[in-house]
Amino acid sequence: MTDFKKIKGIVFDKDGTLFDFSLSWTSWATRIITVLSKNNNVKTPKLADALGFDFDNNRFKNGSDFIAGTVAETAKKISQVIPNKSENELEDFLILEATNQRQTPVKGLESTLLSLNRNGFLLGVATNDAEEAAISHLKTAKIYEHFDFVVGYDSGFGSKPDPGQIIAFCTQMSLKPNEVLMIGDSTHDLIASINAGTVPIGVLTGPAVKADLKPYSSRILNSIEDLIDLLKLKATKTVGN
Q: Which one of 46, 47, 99, 196 counts the least CB within 10 Å of its CB?
């Protein structure tokens, strides 16, 4: 059983954990599919299928590689239906478009991070997005300063579900794995946490449902806002709340 009083550090996934996945990425997917279809003479349904996106119903399909995979993995999928573009070209295009995509924060994001900061927790972000895009999203949302550590799939520590990103956080923050929580909305996040020896905590602000996350989670929270109660912290209000 986890003794949450011993926790000193917290690593967050980005998409679906800090930011609402559907509100942040559905419009992006629609735009990307439309642009790539038009510019490369590829039928929209074929490209949508490669991205794992239901274009007619404007949502990602369950099991879409985009939800938890890396940008490189998404580029590889798309390259299979756009043979005149290399994987590297498509990856660069996707990173640029993702960097410019405005994210929708989950409820209570800033106040939760502020409470964690004020209680002395070291905070990190480990994402399968590109590092540059992640930093851009955090800065645009005005929460970048809350984090001590930010890595993407291209930062040199691998990608989830491999544990390298989380191990790097523990190493650089001088923390033992059992002193760290990994908060995520996908099985990739939680499996990476287990492999790193940290405490896996699932949240329900992404596409996955409780049944998906339960086998891999120490706890499942509705959102990161519930960390205040889990860690028995006094909530912090931000200006405008």
A: 46
pLDDT band at 68; cut points 50, 70, 90: confident
Phi and psi at 102, nearest 5°, equal -70, 135
Q: Indicate the pLDDT class of residue 34, thresholds 50, 70 and 90.
A: very high
Q: Is 221 helix (H, G, I), strand (E, B) or coil?
A: strand
* Nearest Cα residue to 217 out of 188, 174, 238: 188
Using CB atoms within 10 Å of the CB of residue 215, give its burial: 0 to 12 exposed, 13 to 18 middle, 19+ buried: exposed
Cα 227 to Cα 118, 119, 196, 203, distances in angstroms: 14, 12, 21, 10
pTM of the model: 0.88
> How many C-beta atoms lie closer than 10 Å to residue 53's C-beta?
22
Where do the CATH 3.40.50.1000 domains begin and end in the chain? Answer: 4-19+104-230
Residues 113-127 have pLDDT tens digits of: 999 999 999 999 999
Domain 4-19+104-230 has CATH 3.40.50.1000: yes
Distance CA 126, CA 152 (A): 6
- C-beta atoms surrounding 111 within 10 Å: 18
